[in-house]
Amino acid sequence: MGRWGIAGVAALFAAGCGVQDVTTPVPQPDTIVFGRVVTVRGVEGEAAQGGQIWEVEVKGGLPESLQAVMRRDGRPIPTLEADLVVKARVTPDTVCVANLRIADLEAFKAGHEVAVVPRPGSSAMVGTKLLTLEAAELYQFRSYQARFLPRSLDEIPAELTGREDATKVNSSGLERTPIPVAGGTVLYFAAGLLPPITENAAPRGAVRPGMAGESGLARWAVGGWRPYRSQWTGTAWSAPQPVLLPGLSDDASAAVTWVNDSETALLVEVRRQDAPVTLLASRRGSAREPWGELVKVERATGESVGDGQAFAAEDSALVWTSYAFGSSDLWLAMPGQQGAPLEPRINTLGSEWAPRVGPNTSLFFCRAERQLRFAGGVVREVRLPGVQRRPLLEAAPTRSGDALFLRYPAFYAPAELDWDVAVAPKDGDGWGEPVPVDEWRPQ
Predict the structure, then answer these.
(1) Rounded distance, CA 312 to CA 242, Å?
(2) Could you give the 3-state DSSP secondary structure of residue 12?
(3) pTM of the model
């Protein structure tokens, strides 16, 4: 779906002109809808799984700030149907973004300029003046503008570029693939720099040890990632240090996906452009020694494999991600057995990845952009507190299951989201409010 959407919106808004009023909804092409909030109200007698259904009424029209940019650039401003009303259904599955961050619907008030991204196949016209849809994403317009139209801004918000402290885990760059060890007091994660938002600007994020040398930034540093380690000292998290793995080429991205409790064995996923993904292993005699030679994990069968975790007695079982044909599935090899795809409740036509083994051999994993958990024979989505959905990925529980390390979008930045590492404490059968890892205090 195109994110500019102005031409499509104009065509959609004009489509009703001269057409006889009807009461039957007529399907319409899905396109971004811009306008101003009129009312927000609950839908009586309707509830989706997990909560209330809301209706946000929007008076259709291009935001004033966008019109000003189009005038400045000499672009024609489309003439939209003056009385078009948009009724957007907001469900517990809708993602709401306000002030560049994830929010609940309560952040949206009458008069706010918004952008509504419809769920595919949900848009329909009723007569000539009413457009109905279900909102997949609902943005305050300034957040949408920063995310998808950054060149239309007078200046880039400081929140998107200002976090550059290399002594912290989180920054304005990329932090991903959190792997907790030692009850969550040791953290392995992968980090890199994000490309600059504007020309002649510096890459975004903290330039950490190992990212740069005398000749400048390493080839992998911008747009790629490498593993780092931080440890809880009793008062704070230590400054992240690179996990030095021998033999990695300068253009390779790498993320540690499993470490044993003694930190003497690890698995690492290695990616290179135009090459298959590879799952490698390294060992060392003690946690004080350097990591040894990287060797291919032969049990992880498949042409392109990674994202592996060992488990069971003596770490003799292995689960991993097999990538093929633009998709991925999860595979499992039990002790003494050949690997095979996991069952259809887990592997589907979608892309499954990031397997993380939890207590009682429960399995956390991602399906496309959703975080799921398989336990007790049932697959359920992992939800964070909030009325509307709060995205998260790569959730990894501590061995006890008392805390869940994950990555979440700290800011809805242009091009690539600004992912941070956070920790959600166990709360009954679910999870509590996620805490950015630099502020997390292990118990």
Answers:
(1) 28
(2) helix
(3) 0.91
SS3 72: helix
Please work out, in degrees rounded to the nearest 5, the angle formed at the alpha carbon of residue 225 by the alpha carbons of 220 and 227.
120
Q: Report phi then psi at 157, rounded to 5.
A: -55, 135
* Pairing assessment for the beta strands 226-231 and 241-242 based on DSSP bridges: antiparallel
In this structure, what DSSP letter does residue 235 have?
S
Q: In the structure encoding, which two tokens stand for residue 171, read together?
A: 């920054």
The CATH class given to the 6-152 domain equals mainly beta
Token code pair at residue 249: 């080429």
What's the CA dihedral at 363, 368, 369, 371 to 10 degrees? Answer: -10
Alpha-carbon distance 94 to 389, whole Å? Answer: 6
DSSP track, 125-141: EETTTEEEEEEEEEEEH
Pairing of strands 130-140, 95-98: parallel
Domain residues of the chain, as ranges? 6-152, 161-439
Return the amino acid letter for 27.
Answer: P
418-427 and 430-431: which strand pairing?
A: antiparallel
Residue 173 near residue 192 (C-beta atoms within 8 A) = yes
pLDDT tens for the chain, 443 residues long, are 344 444 344 444 444 444 445 678 999 999 999 999 999 999 987 766 668 999 999 999 888 878 877 788 777 876 666 688 999 999 999 999 999 999 999 999 999 999 999 999 999 999 989 999 999 999 999 999 999 988 888 888 888 999 999 999 999 999 999 999 999 999 999 999 999 998 888 999 999 999 999 899 999 999 999 999 999 999 999 999 999 999 999 999 999 999 999 999 999 999 999 899 999 999 999 999 999 999 999 999 999 999 999 999 899 999 999 999 999 999 999 999 999 999 999 999 999 999 999 999 899 999 999 999 999 999 999 999 999 999 999 999 999 999 999 999 999 999 889 999 999 999 999 999 999 999 999 98
Place of tokens 């992992």: 382
Indicate the pairing of strand 101-103 with strand 95-98: antiparallel
| Statement: 161-439 belongs to CATH 2.60.40 | no
Structure tokens at 108: 């949206």
Q: With CA atoms as reference, report the closest residue to 384 among 90, 95, 46, 52.
A: 95
Helix, strand, coil shares of the chain as percentages rounded to 5?
A: 10, 45, 45
Cross-strand bridge partners of residue 88 = 56, 133
Question: Among 38, 31, 40, which residue's Cα sits nearest to residue 4?
Answer: 31
